[in-house]
Amino acid sequence: MTNTAPSPELLARLVCPVTKGPVHYDKESNSIISPLAKLAFPVRDGIPVMLPEQATPLKD
């Protein structure tokens, strides 16, 4: 799998599936971050996997 960022158009439309709140892309971890849910959703081949069961809890 490549470490490709999602398109800006896609990122502008994404919301957290848990909180429906805003998210942002983190290049270092190649994941979509939901600060409200404190979850990191993986990005695989440029496609965000926005499934809660695939997310990783963020450390405080």
How would you describe this protein?
The protein is mainly beta and 60 residues long. Helices cover 10% and strands 28% of the residues. Strands 1, 2, 3, 4 and 5 form a five-stranded antiparallel sheet that branches. InterPro entries: Trm112-like (IPR005651). It comes from Bombella pluederhausensis. Belongs to the UPF0434 family.
Distance between the termini: 28 Å
Assembly status: single chain
Decide which structural class fits the backbone: mainly beta
Strand fraction: 25-35%
Q: How many helices? A: 1
Query: According to CATH, what is the class?
Result: Mainly Beta
Task: Outline the low-pLDDT stretches.
Answer: none
What characteristic shape results from the CA principal axes?
Answer: globular
How does CATH name the architecture? Single Sheet
Main beta sheet strand tally, sense and closure: 5 strands, antiparallel
Question: Averaged pLDDT, please?
Answer: 93
Can you write the helix and strand succession as a string? HEEEEE
Total count of strands: 5
Tally of distinct domains: 1
Query: What is the CATH topology?
Result: N-terminal domain of TfIIb
> C-alpha Rg, in Å?
10 Å
List strands and helices in order, with pairings.
Elements: H1 8-13, E1 24-26, E2 31-34, E3 39-44, E4 47-48, E5 56-57
Antiparallel strand pairs: 1-2, 2-3, 3-4, 3-5
Protein name: UPF0434 protein NQF86_07615
Family: Belongs to the UPF0434 family.
InterPro entries: Trm112-like
Key traits:
60 residues, five-stranded antiparallel sheet, 28% strand, N-terminal domain of TfIIb, mainly beta
Q: Could you give a short description of this structure?
A:
This is UPF0434 protein NQF86_07615. This protein has 60 residues and is mainly beta. The chain has one helix at residues 8-13, and strands at 24-26, 31-34, 39-44, 47-48, 56-57.
